[in-house]
Design brief:
Oligomer: single chain
Helix content: under 10%
Structural class: mainly beta
Strand content: over 45%
Largest sheet: 16 strands, antiparallel, barrel
Number of strands: 22
Strand order of the largest sheet: 2-3-4-7-8-9-10-12-13-14-15-18-19-20-21-22
Number of helices: 1
């Protein structure tokens, strides 16, 4: 068919007026950028585009330096948390193809490549130059004096990469059960609802990150290559995978390794997540679990999941001795509630989620994170490093490790009578991390509110987060000794 202006106009119109479907809190969005290729809509393709911009005020960890090398107790910045494009199509009900590309974590100091700006990875210092200094292979954090030389402006340009690409085939479909099998770099993750969380519709401003327990080590931004099976049996929703994790080797030198590190490994990983959906049934066409339905569904689910990767980590008892290998395993139990209540015209709703993780990475495994951390890796001149946070500078915090993590969040959608145009949803979250490497458990608090202009399709989120600062004393105890906060204002639009 010859392309013409008339054909382009018809195509655009089809995107805008395609058949009605589910939309997350919006009365006008419907199915968005979708093109139906037959009358009943069983053959179609769809695009999803979204941006999340963060403006932040950060109370920095002790010792944080400015770009000029002086003490910087706080930082104000604006950056890009996510910019993504996702496309998928079904030309037959029997098969589906999906592609998802984008960038993450671009700040005024780096482009978010290749490690997405996660503190604890030397790659967060991006550019074409070199990074020098002593790297702690146990955490990946640069603990020595680091210098970065960049060629031109390359450090500001993010690297667009594939988040997902997979092919999926419908194997069996009945009235009470169905089964599909897929192949590729996929997000059909195990363990918990949050491990497959959609980034389009969080209740809080973001995920707590430890839900993606392999993030940017044995996965590619929470994805691994593999084969997955997904479907439903009555009210049981399930997903199982057989994956080939990315190979990571943090073992260096011949010295003793008291804390487990990732070791060279070519073994498969196994995982799954099952949840019983008591009330409204959630779609599993795509793997992304909704964080809040904004009063549009009645959902109550109980779930459980697991992940296992043999010999994924290693320790060494003696200098020059053999490595001891350790299996990686994760277990989780969770519950999700999203329930409208009261007068239908007011459309109030409560959203609540709780999850318990048991994580085993081997002896004393520990990892830190600083989302979009703009702080230099070295402290300001004259700082007493005895007061240094074990997680580093800027907004770095304990992420995860061998031990137990409990997380819960809850939000209340206020009635429509408060505002005719904007829906308001205050929320709060709490995390407790009881990790073997820490001498005492650490607690984290978040409080904020969503302001919905058009459901999740156009919203503002304001959140204050309080994190502990962990320091090590003369007795070798690693304890929370103070705390720091971070104020995030997010503008979020998705089409």
């Amino acid at each position: 068919m010859r392309f013409s202006a008339q054909y382009a106009a018809v195509l655009l119109l089809a995107m805008l007026v395609s058949a009605a479907g589910y939309s997350q809190g919006s009365e006008t969005y419907k199915t968005g950028l979708k093109v139906n290729l037959n009358e009943d809509g069983s053959r179609y393709f769809r695009f999803i585009v979204w941006n999340q911009m963060w403006t932040r005020y950060i109370q920095n960890n002790p010792g944080t330096a400015s770009a000029a090398g002086t003490e910087q107790k706080s930082t104000v910045d604006i950056g890009l948390r996510r910019a993504r494009i996702l496309a998928y199509a079904q030309l037959s009900p029997r098969y589906l193809i999906l592609t998802h590309i984008g960038i993450n974590n671009q700040t005024f100091t780096n482009g978010g490549a290749p490690f997405g700006g996660l503190s604890g990875n030397p790659g967060s210092l991006s550019g074409s130059g070199s990074v020098t200094g002593t790297a702690d292979t146990l955490t990946g954090a640069v603990t020595g004096t680091a210098s970065v030389s960049v060629n031109g402006a390359s450090s500001k340009k993010p690297q667009v990469f594939f988040h997902d690409f997979w092919n999926e085939f419908l194997v069996a479909k009945g009235k009470q059960a169905n089964l599909s099998v897929g192949f590729g770099l996929h997000y059909w993750n195990p363990v918990s609802r949050l491990t497959s969380a959609s980034t389009l519709n969080f209740l809080a401003v973001d995920a707590p990150i430890f839900n993606w327990f392999n993030i940017e080590l044995t996965d590619q931004f929470a994805r691994q290559f593999g084969i997955y099976a997904k479907g439903k049996v009555s009210k049981l929703d399930y997903r199982l995978h057989l994956n080939k994790p990315f190979n990571v080797n943090q073992v260096s030198g011949t010295g003793a390794i008291s804390r487990a590190v990732h070791a060279a490994n070519d073994k498969l990983s196994y995982g799954g997540y099952l949840n019983w959906q008591f009330l409204d049934q959630e779609s599993n066409l795509l793997p992304f679990f909704v964080g809040s339905y904004v009063g549009t569904k009645k959902v109550f689910n109980l779930g459980a999941g697991f992940y296992y990767h043999a010999d994924a980590l290693a320790t060494r008892t003696d200098n020059g001795g053999p490595l001891s290998y350790h299996d990686q395993s994760q277990l989780a139990l969770d519950a999700f509630l999203d329930m409208p209540f009261g007068n239908k015209e007011k459309n109030m709703a409560v959203t609540a989620y709780a999850v318990y993780y048991n994580m085993n990475f081997g002896p004393n495994y520990y990892r830190s994170v600083g989302i979009m951390n703009v702080a230099p890796a070295a402290p300001y001149a004259g700082f007493n490093t005895a007061d240094r946070s074990i997680d580093g500078y800027g907004n770095a915090r304990p992420l995860l490790g061998t031990g137990n993590i409990f997380y819960t969040q809850a939000g209340l959608l206020l009635p429509k009578t408060i505002s005719k145009k904007v829906r308001i949803q205050p929320f709060a979250a709490y995390t407790m991390k009881d990790l073997d490497y820490l001498s005492k458990s650490a607690s984290f608090f978040d409080i904020g509110s969503n302001f919905y202009i058009d459901g999740h399709h156009a919203k503002f989120t304001l959140q204050w987060s309080q994190r502990p600062v962990i320091t090590q004393n003369a007795q070798g105890e690693r304890l929370p000794t103070s705390s720091r906060g971070e104020l995030i204002f997010q503008t979020h639009i998705y089409l």
